[in-house]
Amino acid sequence: MSAVPPSGAGATTAPTGSPQDHKEKVRAASSQGRWSWMLVAPTLVVLAIVIVYPITSAVFQSFQKDSGLDKATGMFVAGGFAGFSNYTHWLLQQCTTAGGATVPCPPGSLGDQFWSSVGTTFFFTIVTVVLETAIGFGMAVIMARTFRGRGLLRASVLVPWAIPTAVTAKLWFFIFAFAGIVNKLFGTTILWTGSEWPARWGIIIADVWKTTPFMALLILAGLQIIPGDVYEAAKVDGVTAWQRLIHITLPLVRPALMVAILFRTLDALRMFDLPWIMTGGANNTTTMSILVVQQIREGFNSAAALSTITFVTIFLVAFIFVRFLGVNAVESATSIKKGKGK
Amino acid sequence: MNRKRWGSARTYISAALIVIWCLLPAYWMVVTSFRQVGFTYDTTPFFSHVTLDNYVTAFSTNLGNHFGRALVNSLIISTVTTVVALLVGVSASYALARLEFRGKFVVMGFILAASMFPGVALVTPLFQLFTNLNWIGTYQALIIPDISFVLPLSIYILVSFFREMPWELEESARIDGCTKSQAFRKIIMPLAAPGIFTTAILAFISAWNEFLIASQLSNDQTQTVTVAIASFTGSQPHQEPYTAVMAAGTIVTIPLVIMVLIFQRQIVAGLTAGAVK
Fold this sequence. Notes:
The complex is a heterodimer.
Chain A: H1 19-61, E1 68-69, E2 76-77, H2 85-91, E3 94-96, E4 102-104, H3 114-144, H4 150-162, H5 165-175, H6 181-186, H7 196-224, H8 228-236, H9 241-269, H10 273-278, H11 288-296, H12 300-324, H13 329-333, H14 336-341
Antiparallel strand pairs in A: 1-2, 3-4
Helix pairs in contact in A: 1-12, 2-12, 3-7, 3-9, 4-7, 5-7, 7-9, 9-12, 11-12
Chain B: H1 2-33, H2 53-59, H3 67-98, H4 104-116, H5 119-133, H6 140-163, H7 168-175, H8 180-208, H9 212-217, H10 225-230, H11 242-262, H12 264-271
């Protein structure tokens, strides 16, 4: 993962890296074990309470039937094991009628919207991540140059990032209002948040505005670890700017770029604030997160099944990134091990 | 020479475009927030029809908005979340960054996985749990789920700060007879203070900006600013009180922007921590 050796193995600490010291460190390591676990334990306990417990109970609930009054008979029905019916409700779009029969979910019901919400979520994710990566890369290249006023550039890039997403949503909702500035500037009369494709693009533009700076900063950090003399050497050899980009910059910035893309993708897959505030999920802008929230008050157990489907989807995507695209976020976070192993 | 000048001109033009693109919408929010309601859709590109009414409206409770209370709520919730996350997270980050122990990769993987969890996966079970406990409308109902994403984020940033600190001081302290916990408290903590401070800012901002959890697990009493702004109601039904919303948005944003500009270097270092190392 690392193009530079992590500190601790760098030139300044070279004496401690001798074989003798290394052996001693390994011996010390075993005695460090208990002390380390004592330091880590509070975090593990807190995460167990705030994440593991709720998730486990959600998975358990997702296999339960809704208890309550049966609408057909007026009798109280206890919950009980539901098998996969809460999952097939979404995946196969099967609804249960008042009489207990299984039928395809009626159009417009939440169950019927599952696959379209999956489609919308992935559409938003792919379009925003591609745009944000491309624009973010361009911004990073400019920010990496030395010129007067670079401080202003770097500061202003942080402004959209600092504005809360809820405020961003309201701001762009106003910008895209029917009588708003966009329609006036371009002389259009588009109901931006009131029809499918304008609404989708409105959300995408707001998201790109808000999150591209973050991408740019991550990519910039990756660009800055490329040693300048690599470019100098290439220039001396007469390599063109385009070739430098393809053969030097991209391969060297790739690890940082991939981690940035992974983070953004996982974040985009759970997109909620922008579409929820800008359109309320209307006009085919319902993401999976929005569908879960709408379902919570409609039927808790199928909401639990849907939220489970959502995080399993996100983990699958993360797995694909790590396994097939070689993004190693864990290693990048613990790369000290690699440094010391040398 | 000419080519070089053209190159730097291009840099300036692109830089100017980026600055305009980033600042213009935010500028528009501020301009609108100072405009009289009747001129909501005015397109004058600079301050015109200036008034402070919108700021008064934003804080007024006549229309059922409780923006002032929401500000206090957000302040309490974000502060407590940040403090808890750092109290718990600092020691874990130190262990993950500087000590060797079996299971380290598993712990780091678990913390990274925790940061991937979508908010809805927590909101669904917690909604029922907190309803049963009668916790909807309490601060802990919002602080507990907030910790789930602030703690992993803090650890991730802290680990990379700890890793960049020099080893020698800690080692010499140990040689001079400090115990492990003394070395941690007396040598490492003061050295790590700037990194911890940066992490606190980023943790606070992420808790402050949270919307999904707060929109589902709060009531009128514990509503946070983000929820208050999203559900701002005006005097007319179906008519968005844009100018007041922009005023509220400006109030919420200005402290963040000032903080971000003052601590720009540290924040960028924290944001990009772990991504390149």
